[in-house]
Q: What sequence folds into this?
């Protein structure tokens, strides 16, 4: 790439002054297009990001407009009027009073044939005593683990006591809606379906600016993505916050494996044995999200490292096409999305600074304008399909880039750290157990 | 002295004869499960219990708590079988199981699900041999399983059954069981004085007694 910044900038400014209002967003976008020629790698990098992160959502929306009924749960046949037992398993450490909201949300479900199993991970507060007050209902059972063993171990402990044909895995800081199970169960009419995930909403959006951004993010990067992945049969994660599984599928795999990223790992293991995974647009759960930037960055750092551990190391054989084309797509898309994208973003910023010299503000302005435009478009799609994010959230759209960039930079750092195996242990899994787990 | 005073003095003498403290004796044949030997009358003789209560109220004897009996609210029998029952169906057909957790693969299951081999237990999930408890596996705890409804739980419910009339109690029903305290009775200074004087300090009247019992 040759450095010819000053003439490009002059061209761009001439073009702007001749064709458009310089304060208009489109002007910045056009100017950016003019200063990044198609011969530049930056152009193709940017073009690829646009295609990958825009087209699927647009196609999804078109499909939704044309056939909205295709997004409704299928009709009940085998389970019509039968109400098979659904076991809701909750694992948590020190959830405190939050466990009350979680358990109540299940007890107040329109679906009545449920049992709740709470596996407490050796809490140091009064969580067990609080949860035990629900045992008198006859629908809740509490198991207090004698040792702190981590979430996967406690989910497996709860799984041991499951009696239902289906298992609903619910986080201790997450709640379901009265119709959540009713909206998920129909998908299991297909005997090939092993798991169904739900749309996730943020329960505490008003807590801080960070949670308001996450409200937008959950719709854009989780719900919408899950929906088009569902259509293509390439769901890459059945989120552990709240998802429903066929008990035989979960037990057939021996439950959750130990280590980080238990939900991603389980999803891939289900995919490997060819269970179908579905997403229910109409089934909703809501969860508490981190309220401070520091907590959020810690959470995302953990998630990123999980992805590298699980996708790139433990299940790298998914990319060999041995498990079919769709699974290979899941692998390579995961690689691109979770590892390549954050690193690419950093490279993009560095490249722009290195090669464009004085054009940097213009180029970055163009990228910013385009990103914000994409965001607004996706937010509208999300709003149309799910009712979220709220209209008030649209006001935050111009700032959203400044929320996402630090996250992506953190992700990039964590990808590098994990690839170089720098400080791989995370207290999510106790050290005595971590040392016994095979690390790939 | 009226008849009541005479009877109370006789009971007071029985306390003295028992060594100044009248101890209860457990007797499953007695309707209330306990008798006071030496008084010539088992405790379930309503009048003896009333007499001892009267003497305690008059400070002639001091009641000393010995135990608490559960009594069937239906038939008044003390023959209550209290045991652990299932949370869901209240059956007492329970077994206790020990769970094991294998660190390596995360498998959690009843100890029986791990195959016993000469060199130790083998994990059904990853087929690895378990080494020493605490190093590569541990027990999250013991649990109960109900053979009647397959429910499993960590803390069972307490249930009871009256052996005399067959009534069952579990869960909130357990609160219907009546509680009756069993006492030993020790002679007080006032009781000794009454025995020396050959009469009670105050003449007890049936009306007072009825009033006190409400």
A:
């Amino acid at each position: 790439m040759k450095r010819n910044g000053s003439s490009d900038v002059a061209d761009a400014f001439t073009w702007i002054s001749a064709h458009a209002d310089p304060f208009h967003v489109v002007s910045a976008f056009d100017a950016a297009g003019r200063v990044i020629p198609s011969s530049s790698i930056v152009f193709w990098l940017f073009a690829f990001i646009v295609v990958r992160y825009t087209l699927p959502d647009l196609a999804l929306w078109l499909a939704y407009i044309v056939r909205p009924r295709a997004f409704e749960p299928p009709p009940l046949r085998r389970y019509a009027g039968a109400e098979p037992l659904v076991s809701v398993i909750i694992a948590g450490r020190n959830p405190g009073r939050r466990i009350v909201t979680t358990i109540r949300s299940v007890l107040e479900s329109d679906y009545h044939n449920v049992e709740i199993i709470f596996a407490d991970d050796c809490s140091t507060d009064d969580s067990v005593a609080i949860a035990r007050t629900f045992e008198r209902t006859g629908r809740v059972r509490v198991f207090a683990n004698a040792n702190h063993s981590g979430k996967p171990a406690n989910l497996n402990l709860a799984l041991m006591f499951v009696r239902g044909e289906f298992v609903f895995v619910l986080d201790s800081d997450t709640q379901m809606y009265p119709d959540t199970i009713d909206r998920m169960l129909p998908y299991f009419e297909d005997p090939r379906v092993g798991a169904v995930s739900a749309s996730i909403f943020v329960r505490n959006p008003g807590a801080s600016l960070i949670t308001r951004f996450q409200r937008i993010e959950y719709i854009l990067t989780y719900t919408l993505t899950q929906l088009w992945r569902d259509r293509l049969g390439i769901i890459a994660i059945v989120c552990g916050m709240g998802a429903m599984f066929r008990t035989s599928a979960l037990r057939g795999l021996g439950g959750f494996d130990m280590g980080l990223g238990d939900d991603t790992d389980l999803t891939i293991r289900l995919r490997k044995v060819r269970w179908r995974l579905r997403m229910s647009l109409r089934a909703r759960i809501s969860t508490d999200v981190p309220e401070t930037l520091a907590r959020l960055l810690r959470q995302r750092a953990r998630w990123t490292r999980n992805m590298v551990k699980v996708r790139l190391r433990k299940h790298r054989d998914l990319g060999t096409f041995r498990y079919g084309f769709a699974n290979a797509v899941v692998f390579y898309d995961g690689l691109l999305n979770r590892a390549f994208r954050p690193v690419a973003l950093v490279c993009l910023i560095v490249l722009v600074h290195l090669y464009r010299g004085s054009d940097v503000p213009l180029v970055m302005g163009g990228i910013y304008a385009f990103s914000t435009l994409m965001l607004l478009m996706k937010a509208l799609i999300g709003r149309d399909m799910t009712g979220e994010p709220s209209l008030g959230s649209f006001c935050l759209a111009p700032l959203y880039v400044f929320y996402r960039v630090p996250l992506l930079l953190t992700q990039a750092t964590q990808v590098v750290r994990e690839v170089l195996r720098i400080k791989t242990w995370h207290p999510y899994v106790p050290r005595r157990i971590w040392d016994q787990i095979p690390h790939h | 002295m009226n008849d009541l005073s005479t009877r109370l003095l006789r009971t007071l003498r029985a306390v003295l004869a028992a060594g100044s403290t009248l101890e209860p004796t457990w007797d499953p044949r007695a309707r209330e499960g306990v008798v006071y030997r030496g008084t010539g009358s088992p405790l379930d003789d309503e009048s003896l219990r009333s007499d001892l209560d009267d003497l305690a109220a008059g400070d002639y004897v001091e009641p000393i708590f010995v135990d608490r009996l559960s009594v069937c609210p239906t038939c008044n029998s003390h023959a209550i079988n209290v045991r652990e029952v299932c949370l869901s169906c209240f059956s007492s057909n329970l077994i206790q199981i020990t769970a094991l957790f294998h660190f390596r693969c995360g498998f959690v299951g009843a100890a029986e699900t791990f195959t016993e081999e000469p060199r130790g237990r083998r994990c059904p999930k990853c087929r690895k041999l378990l080494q020493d408890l605490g190093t590569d596996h541990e027990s999250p705890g013991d649990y109960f399983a109900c053979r009647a409804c397959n429910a499993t739980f960590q803390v069972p419910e307490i249930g009871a059954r009256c052996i005399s009339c067959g009534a069952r109690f579990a869960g909130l029903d357990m609160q219907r069981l009546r509680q009756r305290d069993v006492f030993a009775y020790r002679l007080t200074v006032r009781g000794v004085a009454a025995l020396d004087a050959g009469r009670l300090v105050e003449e007890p009247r049936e009306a007072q007694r009825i009033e006190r019992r409400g």
